[in-house]
Write a structure and sequence with these properties.
Elements lengths: L6 H11 L16 H29 L2 E3 L3 E3 L4 H10 L18 H14 L1 H20 L2 H13 L2 E6 L15 E4 L4 E12 L8 E10 L9 E7 L1 E3 L5 E4 L2 E6 L10 E14 L5 H37 L23 H30 L5 H37 L10 H9 L8 H12 L6 H17 L6 H24 L4 H36 L5 H17 L2 H9 L4 H4 L7
């Protein structure tokens, strides 16, 4: 069951829904056209389908190998695929031209990222983590450090990581013990242990550039005392060539439920040389650039795994003959009908398709706003920045939840076959599960949304979001052909606004109310976001149908969207009712009664 990158879906969203040709006046878009985007996606799809997808399942079965001395090798063929990706320029797609990148917009790179993550989630993490580390250095480091590390990170010749978690702390990073001691020459001596470091050690790249959170000796306790450092596997000489090995190594690899092809490392730093990124005591602020990049990438990854799982389920369902249609045989010359005739199988496949295609649009719509943060128009840039802050926790949590849900539905469609390792359904389910946990668990994302993102700047971001939806509804309320989509969006937005007001009135009085409501609130938000995406896609598809297009793609898009509106969007009502019950039912029971 071979993964196929959904090129048509991406070109539809980028070229027809987002109308990427409209943005040639924005930084980074001057040389970008819909034709160029289509060409990039076609070539990217070939690479994902032909180079990455074939190594996914074998890599899952083989996993990574650790040897004494901290030597780690990847599955067979992975080093070669990584090198091919680097040499073809795919890793440099959105990197800054000042450091050897191609300077393409993030929205284009995001489409390619969905392809690579769908082809192999574990493989895509190597360039993905590098992009995150690159972003952190690019945003906050001195020009000297940028010139030293970014050109080779941009191309993938050197890879990157983010090192936060330690055995005693995950989410509560104020408990970090890794220490940094100034050496007197501008460098620091880094000592400590970091765990669960994705792509922490491997044989794919000539050097691995770690971004490490540590506490400078004598700094205040807690979050405010943390600083961020760049700590290379190999020191880099003044001439740019690799020097001696730094005092760090991989002490072991985790044995995981999924993403077996990615080396999840325990990293030991024993007086390793590191250099400060930004200022001392600003580590968390600087790391947030890396973390936000990773959170968006994780949402993308979870949805992309769901896309691959959906494709496998459809292929299986079309071929699997079991039972007869309730309305009479549809394959009378065969021993049974395909399971595609059964309404409940259709339910699972349509639910998957609706989440996948709505999620693809949500990812690309959000990535476009990441590009618009660079706009020279202050109002456009401010709105984009507000949206990125508000929507990052929603995108990460909601799409990973739904990506896993789709992978589970895909296994269910496979029946008993899906529970065996002979089919890919099992790997997709195992791989998807971690996306709901790492880069901040989905519960933490929900708390971040209600506790930090909603009240930021007096609620400016959410009010702007509501205003944009209201404007879309007003503009399209007279379009009878897409009335179910517009009405569904208006209703979902009203419920989200209702939930927001409830939080404002009840969360301040009792913070447990906000905590208890947070996950359901995030779900209402996610449903509203997808309703907005589906309304936009329906508008474009309907216009094509009315213009006389005979391409079945548009009719299929409208049918899928109708399923979302009629069978998924009503869940917003249940989530709203649950969140309004408050914290009492959750907090009343004493701990010993559990």
């Amino acid at each position: 069951m071979a993964y196929k990158a959904p090129v048509r879906d991406f070109t539809f969203i980028l070229n027809e829904v987002l109308e990427i040709d409209r943005y040639t006046n924005q930084p980074g878009f001057q040389d970008v056209s819909s034709d160029l985007v289509s060409q990039i996606l076609e070539e990217g799809a070939k690479f994902a389908d032909e180079v990455i997808a074939p190594i996914n399942n074998p890599g899952d079965k083989e996993g990574c190998h650790w040897a004494e001395g901290g030597v780690v090798t990847g599955p067979k063929g992975w080093k070669e695929a990584y090198k091919a990706m680097s040499e073809a320029g795919w890793m440099a797609l959105a990197a800054d031209p000042a450091y050897g990148g191609q300077g393409m917009p993030s929205v284009v790179a995001s489409a390619f990222g969905q392809m690579t993550a769908g082809a192999s989630a574990a493989f895509s993490m190597y360039p993905g983590l590098t992009a995150g580390a690159y972003a952190g250095i690019h945003a906050n480091a001195s020009e000297e450090l940028k010139q030293k590390y970014l050109p080779k990170m941009a191309t993938g010749e050197w890879s990157g990581t983010m090192n936060l978690t330690e055995p005693q702390c995950g989410t509560d990073l104020g408990m970090v013990r890794t220490k940094a001691v100034p050496n007197g020459d501008g460098s620091y001596s880094i000592t400590g242990q970091k765990i669960w470091i994705s792509a922490g050690e491997h044989d794919f790249a000539d050097n691995i550039i770690h971004t490490v959170l540590a506490r400078v000796e004598g700094a205040v306790p807690g979050i405010k005392g943390l600083s961020l450092f760049v700590v290379p596997k190999f020191l880099v000489n003044e001439d740019g060539l690799l020097g001696e090995r730094n005092s760090l190594e991989c002490a072991g690899l985790e044995h995981k439920m999924g993403i077996h092809g990615n080396a999840t490392a325990v990293m030991q730093y024993d007086g390793a040389k590191g250099w400060l990124i930004g200022e001392e005591g600003r580590g968390m602020n600087n790391m947030f650039v890396v973390m936000n990049e990773a959170r968006l990438g994780t949402g993308l990854q979870g949805l992309a795994i769901g896309t691959a799982a959906y494709q496998a389920a459809v292929e299986f369902a079309k071929d699997r003959l079991q039972g007869r249609s309730l309305t009479g045989p549809k394959n009378p010359d065969g021993p049974a009908d395909s399971i595609m005739v059964h309404p409940d199988v259709r339910r699972m496949l349509l639910e998957s398709k609706a989440f996948v295609e709505g999620g693809q649009a949500f990812i690309l719509w959000t990535a476009l706003h990441a590009d618009l943060e660079k706009s020279e128009d202050a109002a456009v840039a401010q709105k984009a920045k507000d949206y990125m802050g508000l929507l990052t926790p929603v995108l990460k949590a909601y799409l990973t939840d739904k990506g896993f849900h789709v992978a589970s539905l895909g296994m269910q469609v496979h029946g008993g076959s899906g529970y065996t390792e002979h089919f890919t359904a099992s790997q997709y389910l195992r791989d998807a599960r971690i996306t709901m946990i790492y880069e901040g668990t989905n519960g933490i994302q929900a708390l971040d949304l209600v506790g930090r993102k909603l009240p930021a700047n007096g609620g400016r971001a959410i009010m702007t979001w509501f205003g944009e939806i209201d404007a879309f509804v007003a503009e399209n309320s007279g379009n009878e052909a897409i009335k179910p989509f517009v009405d569904g969006l208006a209703d979902a937005k009203a419920k989200l606004q209702d939930g927001t007001m409830w939080l404002m009135q009840n969360g301040m009085a009792n913070p447990d109310n906000a905590g208890a409501a947070s996950t359901d609130y995030l779900n209402v938000f996610g449903l509203t976001a997808l309703a907005y995406m589906w309304a936009q896609m329906a508008k474009v598809a309907q216009a094509q149908v009315e213009a006389g297009s005979t391409d079945p793609y548009y009719a299929t898009k409208l049918q899928t969207g109708r399923y979302f509106v009629e069978r998924i969007l009503p869940d917003a009502e249940a989530h709203l009712k649950k969140m309004k019950t408050g914290a009492d039912v959750l907090m009343a029971m004493p701990a010993e009664a559990f």
